[in-house]
Design goal:
A: globular, B: mainly alpha, two-stranded antiparallel sheet, 36% helix, globular
């Protein structure tokens, strides 16, 4: 697969790549493949940062994945939009917790707790 | 899909009733899901297609009946979120790697927990019958069952350390690898106040979380974040993890 040039990719292309990576990361989490999880984490982080630099902070386009069947995708989309869509993203995280979608529910619950205590301040 | 499976009596753990009822449409729905890569024999009178030899008698996967939601409190899925996904695929032969087998049984346990939260008791019952026919999964039945243990108090989790129970493991509240990297002694790492007994699959999930990069820790794994932290911070994070993964009561 041709590697996506993040700097020249369109916003839809970045969103598609985000989705692909979020699904793959979720699969790696479920399979205990931590080396892959780490690799996907930083690739997703790069896409988040690239979308942030686009005019108007295009991280908000990731809200399109708030209803995706994969809890990993919803977790990543909510996390990426905590700054631009603070209320909606937190609802998505809470839903993952309420739906018992472990292990992602554990991560989502920790994230919400750390947001509430101020330990975690997304930028 | 709303059969409660309750057989009366008190207590939280109630066995499923006799599964030899006609699953009707649910049995046909299970067939469509193509859970296994195998060809089933003719349909049993119970309505669930099984391949291979009939299942042995096994300890039951007990189903904790759900109370119906209060009228003013919606249940799972009420807000229109994604529907319950299909049950996970189950390999007929055991995967070669231990972590792959663990992933399969953890996926089964997790799905059962969610299906019960959606009150799909009859679907869980037929899924249970199907997995009982997979011989290599039998060694994981205890882990599948303990995954749904309700959260306990810290005292209960600590007191249970001295009482071995199938499907559970002893877990270190302040993560032991992080403590070892920081030079804590074995006596400090294994001090009784640092030990709790938790469901095995939850233990795997929490341990996995410690090893994955995390936004809250600036991209570090929790283990990396805790490398230079005092014991109090390690216990704080450790307790938070136990709470968020449904092991420790808040």
């Amino acid at each position: 697969m041709k590697k996506l040039n993040l700097a020249t990719a369109t916003v839809p292309e970045l969103a598609d790549e985000f989705l692909r990576l979020a699904i793959a990361k979720g699969r790696a989490v479920m399979d205990f493949e931590n080396a892959k999880v780490k690799r996907f984490y930083w690739q997703i982080d790069a896409i988040r940062n690239e979308l942030k630099t686009r005019p108007g902070d295009q991280r908000r386009v990731l809200a399109a994945f708030y209803r995706h069947p994969s809890p990993s995708v919803r977790l990543e989309a909510a996390t990426a939009t905590l700054v631009v869509l603070p209320e909606q993203s937190r609802l998505v995280l809470q839903e993952i917790v309420d739906r018992l979608e472990y292990p992602f529910a554990g991560t989502a619950g920790m994230r919400l707790h750390n947001l509430a205590t101020g330990f975690y301040k997304p930028t | 899909d709303d059969a409660t499976g309750q057989v009366g009596g008190g207590g939280l753990d109630l066995s499923l009733p006799d599964l030899s009822f006609d699953l009707g449409d649910i049995g046909r729905e299970i067939d469509k899901l193509d859970l296994f890569d195998l060809k089933p024999r003719k349909l049993r009178s119970g309505g669930v297609r099984l391949a291979g030899k009939p299942p042995r008698r096994l300890p039951p996967i007990v189903v904790t009946p759900d109370k119906p939601p209060k009228p003013d409190k919606p249940g799972i899925g009420h807000n229109g979120g994604p529907a319950l996904e299909d049950p996970p695929q189950i390999p007929r032969s055991p995967p070669k790697q231990s972590k792959q087998r663990t992933a399969v049984q953890r996926g089964i346990a997790s799905w059962i927990e969610r299906a019960l939260s959606f009150r799909r008791h009859a679907l869980v019952a037929s899924f249970r019958a199907a997995i009982e026919a997979v011989s290599w999964l039998r060694q994981y039945f205890a882990q599948i069952e303990t995954y749904r243990d309700p959260p306990k108090t810290l005292r209960e989790l600590q007191q249970a350390v001295g009482s071995p129970r199938a499907g559970t493991q002893v877990h270190h509240r302040a993560e032991k690898e992080a403590m070892a990297l920081s030079g804590f002694t074995q006596a400090e790492i294994n001090a009784p106040e640092n030990l709790v007994r938790v469901p095995t699959s939850k233990h795997y999930e929490i341990t996995g979380w410690y090893q994955q990069p995390n936004e809250e820790f600036g991209g570090k794994t929790p283990r990396e974040y805790l490398a230079d932290k005092p014991l109090a911070e390690r216990l704080r994070v450790g307790n938070d993890a136990l709470i968020r993964f449904g092991v420790l009561k808040p």
